[in-house]
Specification:
- With 155 residues, the protein is mostly helical.
- The protein has helices spanning 38-63, 68-84, 92-96, 111-124, 129-132, 143-148; strands at residues 2-3, 6-7, 99-102, 151-154.
- A hairpin with a 2-residue loop joins β1 and β2 (6-7).
- α1 (38-63) packs across α2 and α2 crosses α4.
- The radius of gyration is 16 Å and the shape is globular.
Length: 155
C-alpha cells in the first residue's frame, strides 16, 4: 500500500498511523473514556498469560511436546489480534478486568490493526520501558499504543 509516497506495512490499516497523526489530538477521543493505567493492564496481561499457558499445555498433551512451541507461537499470534478485534475488543484478561482496546475514534480495531498493535508490543518489551510509559503518558498509552493509535479504556 502507498499513501502520499509513504509505504505502509501490510499489518497497519491506512487510517491507523501513517495516514495522519490525528490520534494525538485530544478532540478526537471521546471525553467520557476512562483510560487504564499500568497496573490494571499488567494484571490483565498476567491473566492472559495464565490462560494462554493452560491452553498451550492442553494443546501439547494432544499434539505432543515437540510441536508445543509451534502451537504456542501460532496460538499467541492469533489470540491477541482476534480477541482485540472481536465484539468485546478485549482478551480474556482484559474482559476479566472490564477493560478494552479502542482505536482513535473510540471504535473496534480491524484484525490487521490489532495484529500490528500486537507485533508492536515487542518494541514495548525492550527493558519494559514501552509498557512503563503507560504510567506516565496523559492517556496512559504504552509505546505500542502510541505508535498504533490505540487506547486501553474502561469498558
Amino acid at each position: 500500500n502507498k499513501n502520499n509516497g509513504i509505504l505502509i506495512p501490510f499489518f497497519m490499516s491506512e487510517s491507523s498511523l501513517l495516514d495522519d497523526l490525528s490520534y494525538l489530538d485530544d478532540s478526537i477521543i471521546q471525553e467520557d473514556f476512562v483510560y487504564v493505567g499500568f497496573w490494571k493492564r499488567a494484571m490483565a496481561l498476567l491473566v492472559d498469560g495464565l490462560v494462554i499457558s493452560v491452553i498451550n499445555y492442553i494443546l501439547m498433551l494432544f499434539i505432543g511436546y515437540s510441536f508445543g512451541f509451534i502451537s504456542y507461537s501460532f496460538f499467541i499470534y492469533l489470540y491477541y489480534p482476534i480477541m482485540h478485534c472481536s465484539v468485546y475488543q478485549a482478551t480474556l484478561g482484559k474482559r476479566a478486568l472490564n477493560i478494552k482496546v479502542v482505536n482513535k475514534e473510540g471504535g473496534r480495531l480491524s484484525f490487521f490493526h490489532a495484529l500490528g498493535r500486537f507485533m508492536l508490543m515487542y518494541l514495548s518489551c525492550i527493558l519494559f520501558i514501552g509498557f512503563i510509559m503507560a504510567a506516565f503518558t496523559k492517556k496512559k498509552q504504552s509505546l505500542h499504543d502510541l505508535i498504533a493509535g490505540t487506547f486501553v479504556v474502561e469498558n
